[in-house]
Design brief:
The chain is of the alpha/beta class. It is 46% helix and 16% strand. The protein has a domain of 213 residues: Rossmann fold, CATH 3.40.50.
Length: 462
């Protein structure tokens, strides 16, 4: 398996070189030359596998044998050895038509742990076997930062800097990042929103001289490994309930940066027979508007009760557009140039019909989000975080007869008590989260200014 850029101007790379490149050197995103297709018979054999075993099976189709199996196995079992559930991502039945896949049993209580615990081990492995300097640079709307820091803190040969929007993440999300005092961790709190942080990151990765000089590596979902690791729990969820008779299986995904939902799209292309892929978002509803109208156009930023989805520019949209355009890198580059020049992308005709066949989408209003949290606590004694509540609202909108929907629970509700408290519900924090409030914080507040951020990076990376 080799990997190429969506924009067609990068020589094909192997798996490890793709990991190290992160954002493609031509500004595109790396994708496999060919997506492997898993046969129905193999899917049936996979039904009996544990999460870790399934992970190894899926990755074996993508790693080019660059990583010896025993080394990969050790990384996988180490990555998930500290999850609070033996299943890693346990499936909770809410009612006859709804399951919730709990993705929040990792060390930072969010779905990002599933991919980033592994990526931390992978980067550490690459640093050792290749003698590579690993300087990780990423932006977060809340959960990625904490999970990435947790995955690499204290690891030899790795430094990590995370940008987060100042006062625009939940308090628990902020504390999970900024109470870490390891010398290889730098938190920059940027006066702006997530899109501002992400824009700086992309510009720095596109500056090949700067990227090379400071050995920058990506931890965001621009890195294909993040996408691939997330496909595992799509297969795992489907295979856990895939024997539920003749019912079709939908998956509803809270999504802001298009990474998690794109992982589901990739799983579908690999042969996983998901019925509907449902995008759940909030009032920053660029993805809903694209699915409903064919226009991808960033709008005004709105702060919501589900801040991890407060995103207007979805990084992984380019990967989906590449496949929508039948892997035509020239057309893709034209569309992306149009986005840069005109501030929007429009698809119509057959392309728009394909978009609507690929996805359903719902932008959930703030009050609706709170109402869903209250409803499911009252009716099912099941507490949802606000992002998961958006996913449940989308299930209610698009779930049909003779269908079962799996909604991804992307975070533990304790991470977003500001929203939960508005419903009148009082929750008890897990001990690791309660302890955060007694710890000192370590972060640097910077203006939304690329030059100021660069100065901080130069001092940190050395």
């Amino acid at each position: 398996m080799e990997y190429i850029s969506t924009r067609g101007n990068v020589e094909a790379r192997g798996f490890i070189d793709t990991v190290l490149m992160g954002l493609a050197d031509d500004g595109g995103l790396m994708v496999p030359v060919q997506i492997p297709v898993i046969s129905p018979d193999m899917l049936e054999e996979w039904r009996k596998l544990s999460f870790q075993e399934l992970f190894l099976e899926i990755f074996s189709h993508y790693t080019n044998d660059e990583i010896p199996y025993d080394d990969l196995k050790e990384m996988v079992y180490t990555s998930y050895g500290n999850f609070r559930a033996p299943e890693v991502t346990p499936l909770h039945k809410v009612n006859d038509s709804l399951y919730v896949l709990e993705l929040f049993h990792g060390p930072t209580f969010a779905f990002k742990d599933v991919a980033l615990q592994f990526m931390g081990e992978l980067y550490s492995y690459i640093a050792k076997v290749r003698g590579e300097i690993i300087h990780i640079l990423g932006a977060t709307s809340g959960d990625t930062g904490a999970a990435a820091i947790q995955g690499v803190r204290g690891k030899e040969g790795i430094k990590i800097c995370i940008l987060h929007p100042h006062n625009k993440v939940s308090k628990v999300q902020e504390l999970q990042m900024t109470t870490v005092d390891d010398s290889n961790v730098l938190n920059l709190s940027v006066e702006g929103n997530f899109d501002d942080c992400q824009k700086v990151i992309k510009e720095l990765f596109a500056d090949l001289d700067f990227k090379g000089k400071y050995h920058l590596r990506a931890i965001n979902s621009i890195n294909f490994v993040r996408i691939l690791a997330q496909t595992v729990y799509y297969f795992y969820a489907y295979l856990q309930i895939g024997n539920s008779g003749s019912k079709k299986i939908n998956i509803s995904v809270p999504s802001g940066n298009f990474g998690n939902i794109f992982s589901g799209f990739l799983a579908q292309k690999m042969g996983l027979p998901i019925n509907k892929l449902i995008i759940a978002t909030n009032e920053n509803n660029i993805l809903e508007r694209f699915v409903l109208t064919g226009e991808y156009k960033p709008g005004g930023f709105t702060s919501t009760y589900s801040p991890s989805m407060d995103i207007q520019v979805a990084s992984n949209f380019e990967r989906y557009l590449y496949y929508l355009l039948d892997e035509d890198a020239v057309k893709l580059s034209e569309y992306m140039a149009g986005l840069a020049a005109d501030g929007k992308i429009t698809v119509d005709g057959e392309l728009f019909a394909r978009v609507q066949a690929d996805f359903a989408a719902l932008g959930v209003k703030n009050q609706q989000c709170l109402d869903i949290i209250g409803k499911y606590q009252q009716e099912y004694s099941y507490l949802l975080d606000p992002h998961t509540a958006c996913g449940i609202a989308a299930y209610e909108a698009f779930g049909g007869p003779d269908e079962v929907t799996v909604t991804f629970a992307t975070a533990h509700p304790a991470k977003f008590d500001e929203a939960i408290a508005l419903t009148g519900i009082k929750q008890e924090f897990p001990a690791p989260i309660s302890a955060l409030f007694e710890m000192p914080q370590h972060m640097t507040v910077v203006e939304h200014d690329k030059a100021a951020i660069v100065r901080e990076l130069q001092a940190f990376y050395g």
